[in-house]
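Open question from group meeting: does this chain pack into something compact, or does most of it stay loose? Before anyone orders reagents, we agreed to write out a predicted structure and look at it together. Recording both the input and the output here so the notebook holds the full record.
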Amino acid sequence: MRGRFSTRQPPRRFRPVRETTPPDPDAQAVLAWLKSHDLAFGVSIHSPEEWAAQGAPYGENAIFTLTAEGPFNHLMNYPETEADDQLIRAFKKFLDRRGLWYEQGYAWSFHFYWTEVRHQSYGFSKLKPPPQLVERDRLARRANEAAKDSRVKGWPTLTWSSSPDELIHWMTLNDRNSSWAEAFEDEEITEEDLWDGLAQYLDEE
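Structure tokens returned:
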């Protein structure tokens, strides 16, 4: 997936790269992983309070936000080789082992959250999951229930962490329309637009 997220400019200039060690242990682990793969140049870590102070529209309730202007940015937005794809998969596997997942806001901002499994291990009463995760889980459950009543075969089972390809597959089966795939490939819409589209489909039924 190449450059499929918003490239809109931030509302104000962000602080320069900080060399201090981030206090959050998860952020420390992510930064250490990036350094071990020569991807840390141009990376900054922002606490929830620091990110909120920037006034950006993305990353609400993230446990920390990473901004990148160097090799990590290029890797995540414009992978060019199989080695790049393998490195991205390795990064996601590292996050999964640690109980983390991320979403992109701007093309250069990455917002990190706990996975559902990690939330459950600590108890939802102690720390609520991000609202976006809860909403995606609700939509996925509704979509799976709707698919049970359909005569069409081959519906993907959706979860809160479903990939864009799975969402596009579901919506394509629903209305036999390939425009979602084309728009996503042409970077006209984002992953969040796909979830919004799924919600519209379900509300129309």
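Observations to bring back to the group:
Residues 25-121 form one domain.
The chain has two domains: 25-121, 130-204.
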